[in-house]
Amino acid sequence: MPFFTYILFSESHDRYYIGHTDRLEERIIEHNSGHTKSTRYGCPWELVFKREFGTRIEAIRYERYLKSQKSRKFIETLILTG
């Protein structure tokens, strides 16, 4: 089963959200339906980046790496370069 690290963007709040999951489509629906506290007020969220991993540990490590950058420019460069 693949795992994903993903980045969502909220145009209404001009904000990015970084997460990981093994159910990407369902997770995006949860974010956009208000079931996730941290993204409830940014709807609609658009998937702007995803990377697939073979294990949950790899996906979590990559998520932590992205969050540790604390740089909007880094995230936007990553999105543009894929």
CA radius of gyration is 12 Å
**What order do the SSEs take from the amino end to the carboxyl end, as H and E?**
EEHEHH
What ranges have pLDDT less than 50 throughout 5 or more consecutive residues? none
CATH architecture: 3-Layer(aba) Sandwich
Find the CATH superfamily. GIY-YIG endonuclease
Which helices and strands appear, and what pairs or packs with what?
Layout: E1 3-10, E2 15-21, H1 24-32, E3 45-53, H2 56-69, H3 72-81
Antiparallel strand pairs: 1-2, 1-3
Explain this structure to me?
This protein has one domain: GIY-YIG endonuclease (3-Layer(aba) Sandwich). The protein contains 3 helices and 3 strands; from the N terminus they run E-E-H-E-H-H. Strands 2-1-3 form a 3-stranded antiparallel beta sheet, with helices on both faces. Strand 1 and strand 2 form a beta hairpin. The model has no long low-confidence stretch (mean pLDDT 96).
